[in-house]
Specification:
6-stranded mixed beta sheet; 12 strands; Immunoglobulin-like; 4-stranded antiparallel beta sheet; alpha+beta; single chain
């Protein structure tokens, strides 16, 4: 009876170990590019009427499939997203992806539009990498404009340089996003300010870094670690069976 039970356990362990090497693995923490910091917001347009837009820069050394990313808007200090835009398409290395209100008149053609409610100057904006739409705890914040859960009044910034009725462009010296949506937000630290309805910068961005490809070896090693322990347990059970048979 003991021998049969151990054989069943070893079979289960071996099957699980094999599945662990085949199924897609989800790392516990995000891995960013070593030079440019992956994806981040590079332009923010809070224009008149429906002239609202966001530009995303790809600092990775490879094209990125955006179907695993979302933009979330948090209105009036709420900690719950009031509108979520599921992105589609892809963005090439060193290129940008422009998302705009479907009624925006920008003098250029955005890569994607959305019919939902858009932000005002006092709303937080988040770029999220989505690993599981049903479990937000495993999704990663990539970049945030504003402070989620905080109402700044009318805007973030000063009376002259702020997030209301302005176009903001990420400084070239900024090479990664702000992945902490709870920290205080001072737009002057990372953004340059332009007059309302300034659209001539949409469609390109310059960053003082070189897009660098990420490697997946660290993700595979991290995900495989638990299965290594299971495999060792299987070997231990097998050795135990052999010892009992010799007796």
């Amino acid at each position: 009876m003991f021998r049969k039970l151990c054989i069943i356990l070893i079979s289960v362990v071996c099957i699980c170990a094999m599945l662990g090497t085949v199924l897609p693995q989800i790392p516990a923490t995000p891995v960013y590019a070593q030079n440019c910091g992956g994806l981040f917001f590079s332009e923010y347009v809070e224009g008149s009427s429906n002239n609202k837009a966001l530009e995303i820069f790809n600092g990775y050394g490879v094209a990125v499939d955006l179907s695993h990313y979302e933009i979330r808007f948090y209105f009036n200090g709420s900690s719950t997203a009031g509108n979520t835009i599921s992105l589609s398409g892809s963005v090439a290395s060193g290129d940008v992806f422009v998302v705009a209100d479907n009624d925006a008149v920008l003098g250029m053609t955005p890569d994607q539009t959305d019919t939902g409610s858009w932000f005002n100057g006092d709303d937080a904006v988040e770029l999220v990498q989505v690993l599981d739409k049903n479990n937000n705890s495993v999704n990663w914040t990539i970049d945030v404009i504003g402070q989620i859960g905080t109402d700044p009044g009318s805007y973030w910034g000063t009376a002259s340089d702020n997030t209301a009725n302005h176009t903001l462009r990420r400084k070239a010296s900024v090479t990664t996003g702000d992945n902490d949506g709870s920290d205080a937000f001072d737009p002057a630290l990372e953004w340059d300010f332009f007059a309302q309805d300034t659209f001539d910068g949409l469609g390109s961005h310059t960053a003082s870094c070189t897009p660098t490809a990420i490697t997946l070896s660290s993700l595979t090693a991290h995900a495989a670690a638990p299965w290594a322990g299971i495999a060792l347990a299987g070997l231990f059970l097998g050795a135990l069976i052999l010892v009992r048979r010799k007796r």
